[in-house]
């Protein structure tokens, strides 16, 4: 579906020219939501609330155009793991069915403070655990490029919401590629900032040292504008960076060409046996094109590629088993009606409330943290994480960017990965690196597969260099 507006700047210019207003925009997006309902991207649409807010903002603009916020005219969706006061949140799980949030996430408060319009919440894998958005109590989300295929995950609903022009920006979460992988599968742009750049206050936790709120959209300028609003320190999140939001400049041009950059690429990622040959060719052609534009490509070796997935899943499942222990049927969430004693309350509530994939990861995490296996698995995975981060830091100390494919394959068909969890885990092989290292990373489309599906590439930058990464993408995607 071709978008009505490709950027917030275009929206604001159209409003200034009286070609549209917030009310017309909201009606446009609501119409597209209804038209794409068969894709099951939306969990709940705040129709009346969005219309009322649009009218208020239109009146505010008529009274004083200079009084509106930086995100005036931006229609946003939020992933069903981000709290919004007075609204339901379920993490796509029966465990939180009917639960209403008592407070708003910091990211939500900052969006609203700058006059964004939140139009609804979108589907995801249960507790953000999955790579397909099939592990959801609300049912699977379908890819608009081919409804027989998945959109990726866990932020699959967010990717489809942008893909189908039902919002301009979607706020997701990225634990191991959950924003970037679905963005690549759906032909949109997905950005994960430096760990701690955006407060996690109000984000339902999966793996706390990996989770980061991410942004999906169509342009790096839009992502940068949203990031400049939602980033920054937060008294409610001790892991939030103390630095102010990054400052962006998208005017770094010389003689009409992009500034030359030194771009590393890991040779092993392009020779990996799991990489689809067509994706390899499209990626190589794109990298050659960058070289022709004057950029310097630096092939590097990375000996830890095969350790990325094991280290990531050992550590994230360990953290998940701890984070999800709070859902026990006592304090909040689903409580079994069949329980006859306290022990049964715990067992039956968790058995009935959690889905299969969440149970699998809790059990894996509990196993690697157990007394007999802690040193053999968890401790070794932490050491591997440190070595991986050191090697990537060496690469990015010498280069501006690190490039690699976003995914080893195009979007798989429904059921293809859910029946093979190991294959599903391996589909994250290129995206987990950024989360293991806490680096900013972005995926964006670079071509179309012979099967007619989108193909994306991924770029990473050094820790804290979010602005430089987004500015580079504006140059490198042209």
* Oligomeric form: single chain
Q: What integer value in Å does the Rg equal?
A: 22 Å
* Mean pLDDT across every amino acid position: 95
Biggest sheet: strands, sense, closure? 11 strands, mixed
Following the backbone from N to C, one meets helices and strands in this order, namely HHEHEHEHEHEEHEEEHHEHHHHEHHEEH
DSSP E strands, number: 13
Which of globular, elongated, flat, extended, rod-shaped describes the shape?
Answer: globular
What's the total helix number? 16
For the termini, the CA-CA separation is 21 Å
Low-confidence stretches: none
Considering the chains and any ligands shown, give keywords for the structure.
478 residues, 11-stranded mixed β-sheet, two-stranded antiparallel ribbon, 16 helices, 13 strands
Overall description:
This protein has 478 residues and is an alpha/beta fold. It is 39% helix and 14% strand. It contains 16 helices and 13 strands. The strands form two sheets. The protein has an eleven-stranded mixed β-sheet, sandwiched between helices. A two-stranded antiparallel ribbon has the order 7-8. Helix 4 (106-113) links the parallel strand 2 (75-79) and strand 3 (117-122). Helix 7 packs antiparallel against helix 16 and helix 10 packs across helix 13 (374-398). The longest helix is centred in the C-terminal third of the chain and has 25 residues, at 374-398. The two termini are 21 Å apart. The model has no long low-confidence stretch (mean pLDDT 95).
